[in-house]
Design a protein that fits this description.
There is one protein chain. This protein has one domain. It is α+β, with helices and mostly antiparallel strands. The longest helix has 16 residues. Strands 1, 2, 3, 4, 5, 6, 7, 8, 9, 10 and 11 form an eleven-stranded antiparallel beta sheet that branches. Helices cover about 20% and strands about 50% of the residues.
């Protein structure tokens, strides 16, 4: 029993000592390859997670979206990136839904070749996976009447038993 608590203590110390700011800036660096930049965010570094609030996302130096809350939770076995209250610029609302309430990316060492996606928006619920080996993204949207209001988005989806599916490679 003593070894269990010692191991748990060591894991907690590792989680607290992980450079969470470095993870966030690495995330920003990856986005910069796609000409996406996050600016004007306010940082909060807690013991077990890292928050960035009120960020503005720029695409080719134009406002693309605003993200109210970004949380990085690196817990070694399960790592999670959550974005909350994403509102897209009016210039891009023809291509993207008006508002995404939450989107969470979860990476688990139990399934190291996949990243799980789950979220909610003003168009309904969605979930999916990112296959890191085949470099494929698959997102299944619940077929709601609100989703049908976004014609351009629906035109990119195909019908399957579980709902409307978006698939792409990267």
């Amino acid at each position: 029993m003593k070894r269990f608590f010692y191991t748990l203590y060591i894991l907690l110390v590792i989680i607290v000592m992980i450079p969470k700011e470095k993870l966030y800036f690495t995330f920003e660096s990856i986005l910069s390859h796609y000409h996406l930049f996050i600016s004007n965010e306010e940082f909060t570094n807690a013991l077990v997670y890292f928050d960035a609030d009120n960020g503005v996302v720029l695409l080719d130096n134009q406002e693309f979206a605003s993200v109210e809350h970004i949380r990085i939770a690196p817990w070694i076995l399960i790592n999670r990136l959550t974005l909350s209250n994403i509102s897209f610029s009016p210039l891009y609302r023809n291509f993207f839904p008006g508002k995404i309430e939450t989107i969470a990316f979860t990476y688990s060492l139990l399934h190291p070749l996949h990243v799980e996606i789950e979220g909610e928006g003003d168009f309904g619920h969605y979930e999916g996976t990112v296959d890191l080996i085949d470099q494929k993204v698959r997102v299944v949207f619940d077929p709601t009447p609100q989703l049908r209001a976004y014609g351009l988005l629906v035109s990119k989806l195909h019908q399957e038993k579980g709902g409307l599916v978006y698939e792409s490679t990267f």
